[in-house]
Structures are given as structure tokens and as C-alpha cells.
Amino acid sequence: MNAHEIDYEIFGEEMQYVEIELDPQEAVVAEAGSFMMMDTDIKMNTIFGDGSNQDNSVLGKIFSAGKRMLTGESLFMTAFLNIGQGKKKVSFASPYPGKILPIDLSEKEGKFICQKDAFLCAAKGVSVGIEFSKRLGRGLFGGEGFIMQKLEGDGMAFVHAGGTMAKKVLAPGELLKVDTGCIVGFSHTVDYDIEFIGGIRNSIFGGEGLFFAKLRGPGTVYIQSLPFSRLAGRVLASIPRGGKDKGEGSILGTLGDIVGGDNRF
């Protein structure tokens, strides 16, 4: 598998974007909705599947698209091809505040595991597939279900982490416990499982969920401080019910809902 060799530069701090430089006939593939801007002579095409060169048959393309559907993504991706004579640039933006992480798959032994919604874009030729969990507990309670995304190839890929990103390099046998939603991705050599927090008070009143993710080295783990689910939950919790602002979510606001007859939960 030989992915296109692309150059890139990442701009910004809280709301980053990645600018990718394409030589003539080089291309990059991206998720729908991540495009920001591009030079002239870059042709945009909607493709079926991930655009990798593993299997160009009709059946292979259908299987590739089907894998993406299982991860909850669109059946289609967008390819940006430089059809001009000189170098051209195309940019892709973060979906929400955080950091863009460049992954050189040639330095990751050709494989990287990430959250299903973390992938942003990649050099054409990189395969965007699925990673099934073989452990029932991890599949049911691991936060990402039985399926995570698997990036394979020898080119550059870019994933997005919400908030501030932490990088942890684990030695063989070294264990790290992480909130299940805070995992961005990890090397394929890392063993991933879940662990019950334990304790009735911790489980019921701790507010941190029922399970940790256990990541055991060797390998590299990337962690985000602001998962999108946590951000969305805070936004939804701050929206006044019924369009009424009663104390900004304080206990007085809750009592006001009860007195006012707003008993929706």
C-alpha cells in the first residue's frame, strides 16, 4: 500500500485547521463537512468508501463503504485532487475546539486505532476501516461500543482531539486508567479493556460513569480533555427548559420549574 506523500502545516491554537500541500496528481480524502478552503486547480470528487487502493473492484468498494457505515459515518468521502501544474493547497478545519493530531502511519507500523468520530482527513491510499472488539465487556461498556476506527497504510492521517490533548508513552506492562470518552486513539500494540469502578457510592453518586478504560503498554496513547459528548451534555444542560431562564440551573431554578408546573424530566 503506497499512500500519496503530502506536506502539511497546522495553524491556530483552540480552533485549529490543517493546510495540506499537494503536488500535481496528489490527493487527500476527508470526512464530509471538514473542508475549509482550497486553491484553484484542485478538483473535488465524492467517492464511495475511503479511496484506498486495496480493492478497486465494485465488491471491494461496497465492502469499504459498508465498513464506514458500521462506524456511523457516511458511505461517502470527499477526495481533493490537484489537477494543476504546480503545488496547490487545501485546508480542513476542526469541528470544535481542540487539537489536530498528525499521525504518520509509517511510524506506527502501518496501523492506528482511534475513536470513530476522531478522523479528519488523510492522504489518499490510507484505509479507513473498523476495529471490532473481541471482548464482550469492552464492547458493551467501553463507550465506543464494539467498533472503533482503524487507520491503515503508510501515509499521513489527521485526527481531532477535543480540548487539550495529552500524550502518554506506556512501557511494556504499564497500565493507564482513562475515562472511556477521553480516549482519542492509541497504537495497535496497546491492550484496551474496561474495568468496573466499584463501590455503591462511586457508582451511584460519583458522576464519572461506571467504568474506566484500562490501557496497557507498550505503545502510545492520546487522550482528550473535552470529549464532544461531554461538551454537548453541558450545552444541553444549560438550555432553559420551556425557554424560561430560572436561576441558570441552580436549585432555585429547579424549584421554580416545580412550582410553575414544569414537570418535564
Q: How is the secondary structure organized here?
A:
Elements: E1 7-11, E2 17-22, E3 27-30, E4 35-38, E5 42-48, H1 58-70, E6 76-82, E7 88-93, E8 98-104, E9 111-114, E10 119-123, E11 127-132, H2 136-141, E12 147-152, E13 156-162, E14 165-170, E15 175-179, E16 183-187, E17 191-196, H3 200-205, E18 211-216, E19 219-224, H4 228-238, H5 251-259
Antiparallel strand pairs: 1-2, 2-7, 3-6, 3-10, 4-7, 5-6, 8-13, 9-12, 9-16, 10-13, 11-12, 14-19, 15-18, 16-19, 17-18
Provide an overview of this structure.
The chain is of the alpha+beta class. The chain has one domain: 4-Layer Sandwich (Double-stranded beta-helix). Helices cover 17% and strands 41% of the residues. The chain is built from five helices and 19 strands. The strands form four sheets. Strands 5-6-3-10-13-8 form a six-stranded antiparallel β-sheet. Strands 11-12-9-16-19-14 form a six-stranded antiparallel β-sheet. A four-stranded antiparallel β-sheet has the order 1-2-7-4, with no helix packed on it. The chain starts with 6 loop residues before the first strand and ends in a 6-residue tail after the last helix. The mean pLDDT is 78.
**Class based on secondary structure composition and strand pairing:** alpha+beta
Specify the CATH homologous superfamily.
Answer: Mitochondrial biogenesis AIM24
Which geometry do the CA atoms define?
globular
The run of helices and strands is EEEEEHEEEEEEHEEEEEEHEEHH
- Count the beta strands: 19
CATH class type:
Alpha Beta
Low-confidence stretches: none
CATH architectural group: 4-Layer Sandwich
Number of helices: 5
The percent of residues in helical segments reads 10-25%
CATH topology: Double-stranded beta-helix
Side by side, the strands of the main sheet go 5-6-3-10-13-8
Q: Could you tell me the mean pLDDT? A: 78
How many domains make up the coordinates? Answer: 1
Q: Could you give the distance between the termini?
A: 52 Å
Largest β-sheet summary: 6 strands, antiparallel
Q: What share of residues are in beta strands?
A: 35-45%
Taking Cα atoms only, what radius of gyration do you get, to the nearest Å? Answer: 21 Å
InterPro entries: AIM24 (IPR002838), AIM24_sf (IPR036983), Trp_RNA-bd_attenuator-like_dom (IPR016031)
Organism: Maribacter cobaltidurans
Protein name: TIGR00266 family protein
Pfam families: AIM24
